[in-house]
Amino acid sequence: MKNLCATGLISISEIGIAAIMVSGIAQPAAAQSLPASDKPKQAIDVPDSLKASPTLEKWRTQIPNVAQDIKTDPAFRPRLRLGYQSFGDRSSNPTGWQIGLEDLRLGQTRATLSAEYSSNANGNDRDLSADLHYSLMPLGQTVQIAPTVGYRRLTVNNLATSGLNLGWRTRLILSRRSAADITFDQTWVAPGTDRETGRSKLSFGYAITKNIRIATDWQRQQSRQRKDDRWGLSLEWMP
């Protein structure tokens, strides 16, 4: 009987020790199986340049609707221009200056307003115009085609031609927000009359800072009486 009791006591003791050992081993395993949400999170090292990015900040607050932005957010910006203007070899004074306003958007429409004035040094050759352009496609697209209607007064050696200005504008946007683009304008002043004068103008602009860009243009003006080529170089400010 004593041997049986002794054997029973030893068995109970062994069971107790084994239970304690199993408990000690199982406890760390349970701790390792904590849900991922209870684990300490590691901070992501984001460069300061990315933290200051307007695009990243916009995406943090709200994911943009890219399709809607293409329709409503213009790929170009309004600009004020001031620079040099050549008036061709036939001008009495071929050097002069130019000032202009480009691509001023009218409200939330596809219509933009452009105006310019140029003159040679003695004022014998002058060019004044104001035009309305209406884009046929969403303003966010990289290719723009816009009919042009406006008024133009062209003075060459003190002989003036003025009247309705009709044509179109084609633009290829190389980089959005007027960072780089190529524009071609074809217009006719006083169309259908004996004073009709056509103008073909090719211009290129490239931004050197966020708000300043360099622009150059070449244009050919042709009427029944004469033809001349002009070119210009200017600085443009983008507000």
Q: Which runs of at least 5 residues are low in confidence (pLDDT < 50)?
A: 4-10
User: What is the 3D shape?
Assistant: elongated
H/I helix tally: 4
Taken together, the total number of domains comes to 1
CATH architecture title: Beta Barrel
Which structural class fits the helix and strand makeup?
A: alpha+beta
Strand segment count: 10
Level-1 CATH class name: Mainly Beta
- Beta-strand percentage? over 45%
CATH topology name: Porin
Give the H and E element order. HHHHEEEEEEEEEE
C-alpha-based Rg, rounded = 37 Å
Taking all residues together, what is the mean pLDDT? 83
Strand order of the largest sheet: 1-2-3-4-5-6-7-8-9-10
Largest β-sheet summary: 10 strands, antiparallel, barrel
Distance from first to last alpha carbon: 105 Å
Helix content: 10-25%
Keyphrases for this structure?
239 residues; alpha+beta; 4 helices
Would you write up a description of this structure?
- The protein has 239 residues and is an alpha+beta fold.
- The chain has a single domain (70-237), classed as Porin (Beta Barrel), CATH 2.40.160.
- The chain has helices spanning 2-32, 48-51, 54-61, 66-72, and strands spanning 79-86, 95-105, 111-120, 126-134, 143-156, 159-175, 180-189, 197-207, 212-222, 227-237.
- The protein has a ten-stranded antiparallel β-barrel.
- The protein is elongated.
- The model is unreliable at 4-10 (pLDDT under 50).
